[in-house]
Each structure stands twice: as structure tokens, then as C-alpha cells.
Q: What sequence folds into this?
């Protein structure tokens, strides 16, 4: 167990080490870095975190992180409202937006179906997606399933297909340019962009 010369230093290190992927050594480096900064820089850092927790909300339409009830993407008149891309979380939206190849709307599920981890459809934003499709069925032309190419992702894709297919909306899945077992956020922009452009009808996968 590490011994610190200051209880304040120890407390700060412990808080940083609670973050995902941050061990005690990395946490110590981050804290020491902050100590070297001037008071104004540290205050800006602290204020940005406080404002993030205090002011950020989830979009009531797509569950994206936002500063208003409806996020900028859903509000934008430049987006193609006839297409909804279904993703697991915000990191996938960021990855897809960076490709510059998709200009429709999104819907964040909040994860994928995983019986092993006790995650079922009711634990995700599936109901909200189905309601959204039903309420906009005359305008919607396509639902793109852009979930990770894992067993859990494939299971979720199939579940969503069975739920959406009777609603009369075209359902596609991103091309398998992304290696099996990979998550969307880790794919390079070129590969991910091509996977979106070369998406195929989901029916093609289950009829092979």
C-alpha cells in the first residue's frame, strides 16, 4: 500500500484512481501534474467537471448527452430525419460522426443484450426506439443497426430486427469491414466510414 506524505494528496489520488482504466500510479501522475499548474488552470478544470455533472442531461429523443432536452443532432435541420442509426453509447456516435459519412439521426440503446451480465431488452432503450419508430413511421425509411460485432451485439441486432421488421421500416446493418469481436469506437475512421456506406439489408444476413 502506497504511503503519502499528505492526506490531501492521498485523497486526490484515490479519487482519480476510481476512474476507469486509471491505476494508482497514473492517478498520482495526474494529481502531481495538477499541482504544477497555476490556480486559475486548476479552477477551470474543477469548474468544467462540476458543470458537466450539474448541467448535462440526456436527450429525450435519442438519449445522447446534451445540454438541452433535445440534443444538437436531433435539433439540426441539416440532418436526414428519414434514417436512424442505432448504437450502444455516445462513444459510437462520436466515432461515426468523425467519419463524415453519415448525416441521419441516432438512437443510443445504452448497451447490448447480455444474459450473462443480466442485461435484457428492458434494461436498454429498446421500448423508446420502438415508440419512436411507430410515431414517425410515415417519415422513416431506414433503421441502421451499428452495434459491435460481438455475440452480444449480434443477439441484440436479431432481437431488434424481429421487433422492427413488422413495422414496415427497412432495416440494415453496417458492413462487416469491422473485425468480428471489435467495438465500433475502436475502428479506424476509413473502415468505419466504408462499413456505413456499404451497409446491407439485415435480411441478407439471416437468409444466408
A:
Amino acid at each position: 500500500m502506497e504511503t503519502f506524505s499528505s492526506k490531501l494528496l492521498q485523497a486526490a489520488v484515490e479519487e482519480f484512481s476510481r476512474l476507469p482504466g486509471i491505476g494508482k500510479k497514473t492517478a498520482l501522475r495526474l494529481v502531481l501534474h495538477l499541482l504544477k499548474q497555476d490556480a486559475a488552470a486548476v479552477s477551470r478544470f474543477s469548474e468544467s467537471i462540476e458543470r458537466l455533472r450539474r448541467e448535462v442531461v440526456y436527450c429525450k429523443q435519442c438519449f445522447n448527452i446534451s445540454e438541452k432536452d433535445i440534443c444538437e443532432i436531433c435539433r439540426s435541420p441539416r440532418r436526414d430525419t428519414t434514417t436512424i442509426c442505432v448504437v450502444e453509447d455516445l462513444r459510437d456516435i462520436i466515432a461515426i460522426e468523425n467519419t463524415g459519412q453519415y448525416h441521419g439521426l441516432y438512437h443510443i440503446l445504452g448497451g447490448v443484450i447480455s444474459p450473462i451480465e443480466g442485461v435484457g431488452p428492458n434494461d436498454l432503450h429498446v421500448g423508446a426506439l420502438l415508440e419512436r419508430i411507430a410515431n414517425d413511421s410515415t417519415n422513416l425509411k431506414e433503421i441502421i443497426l451499428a452495434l459491435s460485432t460481438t455475440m452480444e451485439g449480434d443477439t441484440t441486432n436479431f432481437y431488434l430486427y424481429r421487433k422492427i421488421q413488422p413495422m414496415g421500416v427497412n432495416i440494415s446493418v453496417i458492413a462487416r469491414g469491422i473485425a468480428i469481436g471489435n467495438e465500433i469506437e475502436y475502428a479506424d475512421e476509413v473502415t468505419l466510414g466504408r462499413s456505413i456506406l456499404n451497409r446491407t439489408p439485415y435480411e441478407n444476413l439471416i437468409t444466408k
